[in-house]
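Late entry, written up from scratch paper. The run itself happened at the end of the previous shift, but nothing got recorded in the book at the time, so transcribing now.
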Amino acid sequence: MKNYSEVSALLEKLCVAKGVSGAENEAAKVASELLEKYMPPQTDALGSVTGTMGEGDTHILLDAHLDQIGLIVTAIDEDGFLKVTKCGGADIRVLAASEVTVHGKKPLYGVITSTPPHLSKPEDADKAKGFDDIAVDIGMTADEAKKHVSLGDRITFNGEYTKLLGNRVSSPSIDDRAGVAAILRCLEMLEDKNHGCKISVLFSVQEETGGSGAQTGAFSAQPDEAIAVDVSFATAPGISSEKYASLGGGTMVGYGPSLDYGMSRKLTELAEKNGIPNQTEVMGRNTGTNCDEIQVAGKGVKTALLSVPLRNMHTAVEVCDLEDIENTAKLMAEYIIERGERNA
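Output as recorded:
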Protein backbone atom coordinates (compact mmCIF):
# COMPACT_ATOMS: atom_id res chain seq x y z
CA MET A 1 0.00 0.00 0.00
CA LYS A 2 1.34 3.42 -0.95
CA ASN A 3 1.95 6.05 1.68
CA TYR A 4 -0.24 9.12 1.25
CA SER A 5 0.86 10.88 4.43
CA GLU A 6 1.62 14.10 2.54
CA VAL A 7 -1.82 14.46 1.01
CA SER A 8 -3.40 13.35 4.31
CA ALA A 9 -1.60 16.09 6.25
CA LEU A 10 -2.66 18.63 3.62
CA LEU A 11 -6.29 17.53 3.70
CA GLU A 12 -6.40 17.57 7.50
CA LYS A 13 -5.18 21.17 7.66
CA LEU A 14 -7.92 22.17 5.25
CA CYS A 15 -10.73 20.13 6.82
CA VAL A 16 -10.25 21.37 10.39
CA ALA A 17 -10.58 25.00 9.26
CA LYS A 18 -14.18 26.24 9.47
CA GLY A 19 -15.91 27.98 6.59
CA VAL A 20 -19.67 27.78 6.10
CA SER A 21 -20.91 29.54 2.94
CA GLY A 22 -20.57 33.30 3.24
CA ALA A 23 -18.25 33.01 6.25
CA GLU A 24 -15.23 31.22 4.80
CA ASN A 25 -12.56 33.43 6.42
CA GLU A 26 -10.83 30.74 8.48
CA ALA A 27 -10.73 28.23 5.63
CA ALA A 28 -9.59 30.96 3.21
CA LYS A 29 -6.73 31.91 5.53
CA VAL A 30 -5.44 28.33 5.64
CA ALA A 31 -5.82 27.88 1.88
CA SER A 32 -4.04 31.18 1.23
CA GLU A 33 -1.10 30.17 3.43
CA LEU A 34 -0.79 26.85 1.58
CA LEU A 35 -1.08 28.48 -1.86
CA GLU A 36 1.65 31.00 -1.03
CA LYS A 37 4.28 28.30 -1.58
CA TYR A 38 3.49 28.36 -5.30
CA MET A 39 2.21 31.86 -6.15
CA PRO A 40 1.31 35.16 -4.49
CA PRO A 41 -2.22 34.67 -3.10
CA GLN A 42 -4.88 37.34 -3.12
CA THR A 43 -8.41 37.58 -1.74
CA ASP A 44 -11.13 39.01 -3.95
CA ALA A 45 -14.18 41.07 -2.98
CA LEU A 46 -16.32 38.02 -2.16
CA GLY A 47 -13.57 36.27 -0.16
CA SER A 48 -12.30 33.75 -2.72
CA VAL A 49 -8.57 33.01 -2.69
CA THR A 50 -6.88 33.53 -6.05
CA GLY A 51 -3.41 33.41 -7.57
CA THR A 52 -1.63 33.23 -10.93
CA MET A 53 1.75 31.89 -12.06
CA GLY A 54 3.62 31.12 -15.26
CA GLU A 55 3.38 32.32 -18.82
CA GLY A 56 2.16 30.69 -22.00
CA ASP A 57 -0.27 30.84 -24.87
CA THR A 58 -2.91 28.92 -22.92
CA HIS A 59 -4.37 30.22 -19.67
CA ILE A 60 -5.86 27.45 -17.49
CA LEU A 61 -7.96 28.07 -14.38
CA LEU A 62 -8.03 25.45 -11.60
CA ASP A 63 -11.04 25.80 -9.28
CA ALA A 64 -12.21 24.14 -6.06
CA HIS A 65 -14.64 25.57 -3.55
CA LEU A 66 -13.73 26.47 0.02
CA ASP A 67 -17.12 26.59 1.66
CA GLN A 68 -18.77 23.80 3.63
CA ILE A 69 -22.41 23.15 4.42
CA GLY A 70 -23.76 24.22 7.80
CA LEU A 71 -26.58 26.05 9.54
CA ILE A 72 -27.40 29.70 10.20
CA VAL A 73 -29.15 31.13 13.27
CA THR A 74 -32.57 32.62 12.48
CA ALA A 75 -33.97 33.28 15.98
CA ILE A 76 -33.45 32.80 19.72
CA ASP A 77 -36.62 31.63 21.44
CA GLU A 78 -37.85 32.54 24.92
CA ASP A 79 -36.17 29.46 26.44
CA GLY A 80 -32.74 30.17 24.90
CA PHE A 81 -32.94 27.61 22.10
CA LEU A 82 -31.50 28.69 18.75
CA LYS A 83 -33.77 28.34 15.73
CA VAL A 84 -31.89 27.61 12.54
CA THR A 85 -32.13 26.93 8.85
CA LYS A 86 -29.69 25.29 6.49
CA CYS A 87 -26.83 27.18 4.87
CA GLY A 88 -26.06 24.99 1.89
CA GLY A 89 -27.48 21.51 1.49
CA ALA A 90 -27.44 20.22 5.07
CA ASP A 91 -29.20 16.85 5.33
CA ILE A 92 -32.11 17.19 7.78
CA ARG A 93 -32.29 13.38 8.19
CA VAL A 94 -29.01 13.19 10.15
CA LEU A 95 -29.32 16.33 12.27
CA ALA A 96 -31.27 15.12 15.32
CA ALA A 97 -28.95 14.80 18.36
CA SER A 98 -25.94 16.03 16.36
CA GLU A 99 -23.14 17.91 18.07
CA VAL A 100 -22.43 21.35 16.64
CA THR A 101 -20.34 24.47 17.15
CA VAL A 102 -22.08 27.84 17.11
CA HIS A 103 -19.72 30.51 15.84
CA GLY A 104 -20.92 33.42 17.95
CA LYS A 105 -18.77 35.95 19.75
CA LYS A 106 -16.76 32.87 20.69
CA PRO A 107 -17.22 29.23 19.61
CA LEU A 108 -19.99 27.56 21.64
CA TYR A 109 -20.73 23.86 21.93
CA GLY A 110 -24.31 22.92 21.16
CA VAL A 111 -26.53 19.92 20.46
CA ILE A 112 -29.48 19.69 18.12
CA THR A 113 -32.66 18.79 19.96
CA SER A 114 -34.11 15.30 19.59
CA THR A 115 -37.45 13.94 20.79
CA PRO A 116 -36.96 10.67 22.73
CA PRO A 117 -38.64 7.68 21.06
CA HIS A 118 -40.77 7.22 24.18
CA LEU A 119 -42.43 10.60 23.51
CA SER A 120 -42.75 10.41 19.74
CA LYS A 121 -46.15 10.01 18.16
CA PRO A 122 -46.43 6.67 16.33
CA GLU A 123 -47.00 8.45 13.00
CA ASP A 124 -43.82 10.51 13.48
CA ALA A 125 -41.50 7.75 14.67
CA ASP A 126 -39.90 7.15 11.25
CA LYS A 127 -39.91 10.75 10.03
CA ALA A 128 -37.18 13.39 10.14
CA LYS A 129 -38.31 16.69 11.62
CA GLY A 130 -38.27 19.81 9.46
CA PHE A 131 -36.14 22.85 10.22
CA ASP A 132 -39.13 24.56 11.86
CA ASP A 133 -39.22 21.76 14.44
CA ILE A 134 -35.57 21.52 15.50
CA ALA A 135 -33.40 23.83 17.57
CA VAL A 136 -29.88 24.05 18.95
CA ASP A 137 -29.43 23.78 22.71
CA ILE A 138 -26.40 25.71 24.01
CA GLY A 139 -27.42 25.40 27.65
CA MET A 140 -28.24 29.08 28.13
CA THR A 141 -31.26 31.19 28.96
CA ALA A 142 -32.58 33.53 26.31
CA ASP A 143 -30.84 36.53 27.89
CA GLU A 144 -27.53 34.66 28.15
CA ALA A 145 -27.78 33.35 24.59
CA LYS A 146 -28.41 36.83 23.19
CA LYS A 147 -25.16 38.05 24.79
CA HIS A 148 -23.13 35.43 22.91
CA VAL A 149 -25.06 34.68 19.73
CA SER A 150 -26.40 36.94 16.97
CA LEU A 151 -28.90 36.19 14.25
CA GLY A 152 -26.95 35.19 11.15
CA ASP A 153 -24.16 33.42 13.06
CA ARG A 154 -23.04 30.22 11.35
CA ILE A 155 -23.07 26.73 12.84
CA THR A 156 -20.79 23.84 11.88
CA PHE A 157 -21.21 20.12 12.53
CA ASN A 158 -18.69 18.66 14.95
CA GLY A 159 -16.48 15.83 13.78
CA GLU A 160 -12.83 14.88 13.72
CA TYR A 161 -10.44 14.15 10.88
CA THR A 162 -10.08 10.40 11.37
CA LYS A 163 -7.91 7.89 9.54
CA LEU A 164 -9.72 4.71 8.61
CA LEU A 165 -8.12 1.51 7.35
CA GLY A 166 -6.09 1.66 4.16
CA ASN A 167 -6.01 5.06 2.48
CA ARG A 168 -9.43 6.21 3.63
CA VAL A 169 -10.28 9.08 5.94
CA SER A 170 -13.45 10.52 7.45
CA SER A 171 -14.10 14.17 8.27
CA PRO A 172 -16.54 17.03 7.91
CA SER A 173 -15.96 19.34 4.89
CA ILE A 174 -14.10 16.88 2.65
CA ASP A 175 -16.61 18.46 0.25
CA ASP A 176 -14.71 20.28 -1.13
CA ARG A 177 -11.44 20.56 0.75
CA ALA A 178 -10.48 17.40 -1.17
CA GLY A 179 -10.58 19.50 -4.34
CA VAL A 180 -8.45 22.22 -2.77
CA ALA A 181 -5.93 19.58 -1.67
CA ALA A 182 -5.84 18.06 -5.17
CA ILE A 183 -5.04 21.43 -6.76
CA LEU A 184 -2.28 22.13 -4.22
CA ARG A 185 -0.77 18.68 -4.90
CA CYS A 186 -0.98 19.36 -8.65
CA LEU A 187 0.97 22.60 -8.21
CA GLU A 188 3.63 20.73 -6.28
CA MET A 189 3.92 18.15 -9.07
CA LEU A 190 4.42 20.97 -11.59
CA GLU A 191 7.09 22.80 -9.56
CA ASP A 192 10.08 21.45 -11.51
CA LYS A 193 8.23 21.10 -14.83
CA ASN A 194 8.43 23.57 -17.71
CA HIS A 195 4.75 23.21 -18.56
CA GLY A 196 4.42 26.31 -20.76
CA CYS A 197 0.98 27.39 -19.49
CA LYS A 198 -0.31 30.31 -17.50
CA ILE A 199 -2.10 28.89 -14.47
CA SER A 200 -4.65 30.64 -12.29
CA VAL A 201 -6.02 29.13 -9.10
CA LEU A 202 -9.44 29.92 -7.66
CA PHE A 203 -10.40 28.61 -4.23
CA SER A 204 -13.95 29.88 -4.47
CA VAL A 205 -16.56 30.79 -1.88
CA GLN A 206 -20.32 30.16 -1.81
CA GLU A 207 -20.50 27.13 -4.09
CA GLU A 208 -22.97 25.46 -1.76
CA THR A 209 -25.32 28.44 -2.03
CA GLY A 210 -25.20 29.13 -5.76
CA GLY A 211 -21.66 29.45 -7.11
CA SER A 212 -21.17 33.23 -6.98
CA GLY A 213 -17.50 32.88 -6.02
CA ALA A 214 -16.73 30.80 -9.09
CA GLN A 215 -18.71 33.05 -11.42
CA THR A 216 -16.99 36.25 -10.33
CA GLY A 217 -13.57 34.58 -9.98
CA ALA A 218 -13.70 33.12 -13.48
CA PHE A 219 -14.92 36.45 -14.90
CA SER A 220 -11.92 38.15 -13.29
CA ALA A 221 -9.39 35.57 -14.48
CA GLN A 222 -10.75 35.27 -18.05
CA PRO A 223 -9.01 31.93 -18.73
CA ASP A 224 -9.07 29.99 -21.98
CA GLU A 225 -9.88 26.75 -20.20
CA ALA A 226 -10.84 25.66 -16.69
CA ILE A 227 -10.78 22.48 -14.67
CA ALA A 228 -13.03 22.43 -11.62
CA VAL A 229 -12.39 19.83 -8.94
CA ASP A 230 -15.24 18.75 -6.69
CA VAL A 231 -16.55 15.59 -5.05
CA SER A 232 -19.20 13.23 -6.36
CA PHE A 233 -21.10 10.20 -5.17
CA ALA A 234 -19.33 6.97 -4.29
CA THR A 235 -21.11 3.64 -4.04
CA ALA A 236 -22.22 2.33 -0.66
CA PRO A 237 -24.95 -0.03 0.54
CA GLY A 238 -28.16 1.08 -1.13
CA ILE A 239 -26.37 3.26 -3.69
CA SER A 240 -26.12 2.01 -7.28
CA SER A 241 -22.70 0.74 -8.38
CA GLU A 242 -23.76 1.20 -12.01
CA LYS A 243 -24.56 4.89 -11.73
CA TYR A 244 -21.98 6.01 -9.17
CA ALA A 245 -18.23 5.61 -8.66
CA SER A 246 -16.09 3.20 -6.70
CA LEU A 247 -14.25 4.65 -3.69
CA GLY A 248 -10.55 4.23 -4.46
CA GLY A 249 -11.29 3.58 -8.13
CA GLY A 250 -9.72 6.80 -9.34
CA THR A 251 -10.71 10.33 -10.25
CA MET A 252 -14.05 10.78 -12.00
CA VAL A 253 -13.88 12.47 -15.41
CA GLY A 254 -17.11 14.32 -16.11
CA TYR A 255 -19.07 14.31 -19.37
CA GLY A 256 -22.12 16.50 -19.88
CA PRO A 257 -23.70 19.39 -21.80
CA SER A 258 -21.99 22.11 -19.78
CA LEU A 259 -18.58 20.43 -20.07
CA ASP A 260 -16.24 20.70 -23.05
CA TYR A 261 -16.22 17.29 -24.74
CA GLY A 262 -12.72 17.71 -26.16
CA MET A 263 -11.27 18.44 -22.71
CA SER A 264 -13.11 15.48 -21.17
CA ARG A 265 -11.85 13.13 -23.89
CA LYS A 266 -8.28 14.40 -23.53
CA LEU A 267 -8.37 13.89 -19.76
CA THR A 268 -9.59 10.31 -20.23
CA GLU A 269 -6.93 9.63 -22.89
CA LEU A 270 -4.16 11.02 -20.70
CA ALA A 271 -5.33 8.98 -17.73
CA GLU A 272 -5.22 5.79 -19.80
CA LYS A 273 -1.87 6.69 -21.36
CA ASN A 274 -0.22 7.40 -18.00
CA GLY A 275 -1.83 4.57 -16.04
CA ILE A 276 -3.84 6.91 -13.79
CA PRO A 277 -6.93 5.17 -12.36
CA ASN A 278 -10.06 6.93 -13.57
CA GLN A 279 -13.82 6.57 -13.81
CA THR A 280 -16.41 8.18 -16.04
CA GLU A 281 -19.26 10.32 -14.73
CA VAL A 282 -22.03 11.23 -17.16
CA MET A 283 -24.54 14.02 -16.49
CA GLY A 284 -27.53 14.73 -18.75
CA ARG A 285 -28.07 18.32 -17.59
CA ASN A 286 -25.99 20.73 -15.54
CA THR A 287 -23.31 19.38 -13.20
CA GLY A 288 -24.38 20.96 -9.90
CA THR A 289 -20.81 22.20 -9.50
CA ASN A 290 -18.88 25.40 -10.20
CA CYS A 291 -18.51 24.28 -13.82
CA ASP A 292 -22.01 25.58 -14.50
CA GLU A 293 -20.99 29.10 -13.47
CA ILE A 294 -17.45 29.07 -14.87
CA GLN A 295 -18.43 28.05 -18.39
CA VAL A 296 -20.68 31.11 -18.84
CA ALA A 297 -18.38 33.65 -17.15
CA GLY A 298 -17.30 36.57 -19.31
CA LYS A 299 -16.92 35.53 -22.94
CA GLY A 300 -17.34 31.85 -22.01
CA VAL A 301 -14.80 29.28 -20.83
CA LYS A 302 -14.14 25.72 -22.00
CA THR A 303 -14.58 23.76 -18.79
CA ALA A 304 -13.86 20.25 -17.52
CA LEU A 305 -14.79 18.52 -14.27
CA LEU A 306 -12.77 16.10 -12.17
CA SER A 307 -14.46 14.66 -9.08
CA VAL A 308 -13.20 12.79 -6.02
CA PRO A 309 -15.58 9.96 -5.02
CA LEU A 310 -17.18 10.63 -1.63
CA ARG A 311 -19.44 8.74 0.74
CA ASN A 312 -21.91 10.32 3.19
CA MET A 313 -21.89 13.65 1.36
CA HIS A 314 -23.11 16.69 3.33
CA THR A 315 -22.65 15.06 6.72
CA ALA A 316 -20.05 15.28 9.50
CA VAL A 317 -18.65 11.86 8.53
CA GLU A 318 -17.81 12.21 4.84
CA VAL A 319 -15.42 9.46 3.64
CA CYS A 320 -12.91 9.58 0.80
CA ASP A 321 -9.83 7.70 -0.36
CA LEU A 322 -6.58 9.68 -0.36
CA GLU A 323 -5.42 7.83 -3.48
CA ASP A 324 -8.32 9.35 -5.43
CA ILE A 325 -7.16 12.86 -4.44
CA GLU A 326 -3.59 12.06 -5.49
CA ASN A 327 -4.71 10.65 -8.83
CA THR A 328 -6.88 13.70 -9.46
CA ALA A 329 -3.78 15.87 -8.94
CA LYS A 330 -1.70 13.67 -11.25
CA LEU A 331 -4.25 13.86 -14.05
CA MET A 332 -4.49 17.66 -13.79
CA ALA A 333 -0.71 17.94 -13.92
CA GLU A 334 -0.50 15.68 -16.97
CA TYR A 335 -3.19 17.71 -18.74
CA ILE A 336 -1.37 21.00 -18.09
CA ILE A 337 1.98 19.56 -19.30
CA GLU A 338 0.38 18.12 -22.44
CA ARG A 339 -1.49 21.38 -23.09
CA GLY A 340 1.77 23.30 -22.94
CA GLU A 341 3.41 20.85 -25.35
CA ARG A 342 0.62 21.43 -27.87
CA ASN A 343 1.45 25.12 -27.80
CA ALA A 344 5.21 24.60 -28.26
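DSSP finds eight helices and 17 strands in the chain.
(Scratch paper discarded after transcription.)
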